[in-house]
Each structure stands twice: as structure tokens, then as C-alpha cells.
Amino acid sequence: MNGSTNMVAVGWLGLALGLAGFMASPVSADDIIFNPVAPNFGSLAIGESASMNILVINNNGPQLVRSAELREEGAFRITYQSEPTPLYWLGGDEEKLVIEVTFTPTTVGSADTVLEVVAGGVVYAVTITGYGVPATVLSQMDGILAFFDASVAANTLVGAGPGKSADGRLGALRNMIEEARRLILEGYVADACDQLQDALNRVDGDPHIPDFAAGAAAGELAARLDGVLDVLGCP
After folding, report:
1. Distance in angstroms (rounded) separating the CA atoms of residues 93 and 82
2. Quick one: 127 and 27 in the same domain?
3. Same domain, 154 and 171
4. pLDDT digit string (tens) for 138-160?
5. Three-state SS for 207?
6. Are 106 and 163 in a shared domain?
7. Domain-embedded: residue 1
8. % of the chain exceeding 70 in pLDDT
């Protein structure tokens, strides 16, 4: 009889522990989802502002969202929040919090902050990035591409290389400049610096690296590329 009673007691104890473990299971990292998962403003001219909506999505059952704040403001600030916190989510499929973050760079270079959401006793965080550039840099890049096309049309910028490779090299040089502009726009300035330096090396007349272009306009093109490198503070 005692043995049977002990077995029942052990059984109930195991069930109780199992239920306790279920009820106390920790919140997983996927219980809150950010969209986008890596918010990036790209490049923005100093003094200008751009805004982005970040969705904080409930991917779990009922939970209390205590707060949603930027760890540091600086060039970033929250300019809109769809609902005030604390906020209780019942666990529905469509539960989300819309947070609008605005980026206004004040200096040249990269900037970042962290959006922290406290829910279910857990701090969820997503890093927000952006890059401040001088107001003139994108217009400089547009001017370089326009100068390139006009010089090709005027035959003052021609491909450099043997045979049919000359035209291909000229096209490759333009693609490099266009890619550098895209990288600047999207905030990948270090990569843009590498791309611009590579383009400059292909038109500067240095015999150690074969040029892709030559002609009367080549020197002016090289000077313009070098000017953007200086403005961006490239090494």
C-alpha cells in the first residue's frame, strides 16, 4: 500500500513539475519580430531628415509590452508610435506596434542607435544605422556621370586597351563610378571609397595599373573622382 501511495505521489509530483516548467518557460528570441530586421537609412545629406517605420510584431501568446525606446537618440528620434506603452497583447495574429524613427545626420560619417522593446520581461533590440554625407556628394557623383557621358560623346574620353577591349574597359569604368554612387546612396561609404579609388586608378595615367580610359578629358575625370574621395574622407 505504501509503495502504491509513493508511486502516485511521485506521479503527481512529476506532473506538477512538468506543468510548472511549462508555465515558466522562457520567452524565446522569436517572440518579438522586427521588420525590417536591420533598419538602414543609407546615406543622407547633413541637415536633411528621413523617416522609416519599424514594425514590432507579436509572435507569441499574451504578453505585456512595457516600453519601446531608443537607447541613445543623437541623430535619431522616435517621431510616431501607433499605440502608447505599456500595452497588453492578447496573442492575436495581427498584433503589432508601429514605430516611426527619423534620422537627421549632423556630422559626416556613420551613425547608429538601438531600438529596445521590453516585453514579457525580456529586452528585444534592433540596431538602426545611417550615414551622414556632405550635401554636395551625390550631386558631385551625378555631375561626374554626366561629364563622363558628355566626354564620350565628344570623343574626348575613349577606351584604353588593345583592340576591341577598349570599349569594354570604358564601359567597365562607367559601371564602377555608377556602383560607387549606389554604395554612397545606400550608406556603404567604405565600399564606395574602394570603388572610387579603383576607378581613379583606371584613369589617372599611372603606368603601374592599366588605365581603362584616355583622352583629353581623362585628367578632369580623375580630378573629379579624387575630389569625391576627399569629400568623403576616404583613406
Report:
1. 17
2. yes
3. yes
4. 999 999 999 999 999 999 999 99
5. coil
6. no
7. no
8. 88
| Single residue among 105, 133, 161 that ends a domain in this structure | 133
Report whether 52 contacts 39 (CB < 8 A). yes
Stretch 222-228: mean pLDDT: 97
Q: What is the pLDDT of residues 33-79, one digit of tens each?
A: 999 999 999 999 999 999 999 999 998 889 899 999 999 889 999 99
Same domain, 104 and 161: no
User: CA 177 to CA 142: how far, in whole Å?
Assistant: 10
Question: 179, 44, 40: which is closest to 109 by C-alpha?
Answer: 44
Largest CA distance in the chain: 106
Residue type, 86: P
**Count of alpha carbons within 13 Å of 168, Cβ hemisphere only?**
5
What's the number of domains the chain is made of? 2
Q: What pairing do the DSSP bridges indicate for beta strands 213-214 and 158-159?
A: antiparallel
Q: Which domain holds residue 36?
A: 23-133
CA distance 229 to 211: 19
Distance of CA 149 to the CA centre of its chain: 31
